[in-house]
Amino acid sequence: MASAQTPNDTLGEEVFRLAMASSASGMAILDPEGRWLEANPAFERLLGRPAARLAGERITAAVAARDVEAVRDALAASTGTPQRLTMVFVHADGHEIRARIEVAPMRDASGRVRALVMHAFAAGAAPDAGTDADAIAQRLAETETALAALNRLQASFAHGVSHDLRAPLRAIDSFSALLASHLDGDLDDTAHDYIARIRAASGRMATLIDSLLELSRAQRAELHATPVDLGLLVDWAHAERADADPGREARIDVQPGLQVLGDERLLRQLVGQLLDNAWKFSRDRDRVRVEIDGERRGERLVVRMRDHGCGFDMRYADKLFEPFQRLHGPEQAAGNGIGLAIVRCIAERHGGRVWAQSEPDAGSTFFVELPAVPDTGDPA
Q: Which of 39, 146, 191, 288 is within CB 3.0–4.6 Å of 19 for a Cys-Cys bond?
């Protein structure tokens, strides 16, 4: 059964649909395999087909045969980064329309691609440069307005969650403690255990709220790209965890010179989540051991973080970066399943990706691909 929509959900959907309906350029929503989900009136006019007839069909059915392969390649690549392409649509009456399209991924709160959004407008035989520039500017303005409205709604929702859910949790914890204190002499061990469980559950819920807000901020935060030394971020993350767990011995080895181009605040969050993951799942080891190194591949730096913890079965690796998915039980210090979703969100916002290799009881290796600092060619 579908969950009830909140007022913010409904308003956000209305803003998005208004932007589609009023756009002078063609706008459509496709599923990740390139099938039509929705098309606005401008797209209907472009193809000479109503949206109801397009629904469920692959977009390539409306593309000239000579451009089908190029469109397929662009759709496949657009699940990672936005793609632009000039190609030919076939109108319902048979005539061809040269069009410029842009396809970009639409991600959910965890960063997973749920759909593709396509913008299109007819190029014509000889497009006027000034008109073309005006159309692009108008399209960008429309998209930015809709996106800003949705971001405001999401920020408002996150604030509401933070404020309205924390208050009852604090009351549950406080009144449980007061009840235990007031009835201390009248409670047996079982009753004390029940109250302890109530307080522990409220604490886990509070931690989950914090993690969800952290994921929301990672998705919405404005990026400010600068050269970032990942080794320094690892030092900070290590110091924070050592302060929180002073009795735990840890050895963290980092390759010098791991320089990437990105938002320092978000990358610090990414490194912190990965190190926290290694820390938690090394609990049954004598000490935490982590090795971090990297390899430059063209304009990218692939960073490798290897731990020596309990590892996991690669058969379930597809769940690893999904929110609320846990590959370990509470006895292995499993968290709330949000940390690695945050890592993926931040990596993808930098145009990169994250993946893992592991086996049970043999540790795990996480790989993060990020933009490398441009090589100026100057000698070191």
A: 146
pLDDT (0 to 100) of residue 96: 86
pLDDT tens-digit profile of 323-348?
Answer: 666 554 444 445 566 888 888 888 88
C-alpha distances out from residue 257 to 80, 251, 263, 305, Å: 27, 19, 17, 15
- Residue 255: closest CA among 298, 290, 307, 279: 290
Instruction: Please give the DSSP secondary-structure letter assigned to residue 62.
Output: G
Least Cα distance to 102 among 75, 120, 81 occurs for: 120
Rg (CA), the chain: 25
pTM of the model: 0.53
DSSP class per residue in 22-33: H-SSEEEEE-TT
Q: CB under 8 Å, gap of 24 or more: what pairs does 60-66 form? A: 60/34, 62/89, 62/90, 63/87, 63/88, 63/89, 63/90, 64/88, 64/89, 64/90, 64/96
Distances (CA, A) of 55 to 34, 44, 77, 99, 207: 11, 12, 22, 20, 42
Q: Which of 56, 54, 34 is nearest to 45 (CA)?
A: 54
Residue pair 354/344 in contact (Cβ under 8 Å)? The answer is yes
Instruction: Map tokens 């396809």 to a residue.
Output: 103
- Quote the DSSP letter at residue 372: B
Amino acid making up residue 324: F
| Burial bucket for residue 211 (CB in 10 Å: 0-12, 13-18, 19+) | buried
Structure tokens at 4: 């009830």
DSSP 376: -
Read off the pLDDT of residues 221-232 as tens digits, 9 standing for 90 and up. Answer: 778 889 999 999
* Inter-CA distances, 326 with 131, 250, 271, 318, 359, Å: 52, 24, 20, 11, 15
Beta-carbon contacts of 82 under 8 Å, excluding residues fewer than 6 positions away, are 102, 103, 104, 105
Measured between alpha carbons, how far apart are the two ends of the chain, in Å? Answer: 61
DSSP β-bridge partners for residue 116:
30, 105
